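Input structure tokens:
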């Protein structure tokens, strides 16, 4: 019997099953930073795959193992058939809502110093 799934694939699976970052951190003993890195790698691999790259090309571009690329693509195949909301959100990031920006307060001044006229 071969080795099981990598811990990275298991963490992505938890995320796609709607576990919170806190739950994933507690269950896997991984930091939020590590989880975000795995999600970034997963997103990059799936994006390249959807652009038509082959597995061996994806492995070379991402510098990830053949095993990890294969596992991520299998996970993607499974969850894409389910129309998974989190998978969709990873692959189709949304721009920040303009109303949310306005609620945060005034935008910071651009360009550093304000143009102030002085009498010299």
């Amino acid at each position: 019997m071969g080795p099981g799934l990598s811990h990275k694939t298991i963490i992505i699976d938890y995320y796609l099953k709607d576990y919170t970052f806190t739950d994933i951190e507690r269950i896997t003993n991984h930091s939020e930073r590590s989880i975000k890195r795995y999600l970034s790698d997963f997103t990059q691999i799936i994006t390249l795959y959807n652009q038509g790259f082959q597995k061996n090309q994806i492995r070379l571009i991402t510098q990830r193992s053949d095993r990890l690329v294969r596992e991520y693509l299998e996970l993607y195949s499974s969850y894409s058939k389910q129309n998974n909301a989190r998978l969709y959100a990873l692959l189709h990031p949304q721009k920040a809502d303009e109303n949310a920006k306005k609620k945060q307060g005034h935008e910071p001044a651009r360009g550093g110093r304000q143009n102030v006229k002085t009498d010299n």
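The chain has a mean pLDDT of 83. The chain is about 60% helix and 0% strand.
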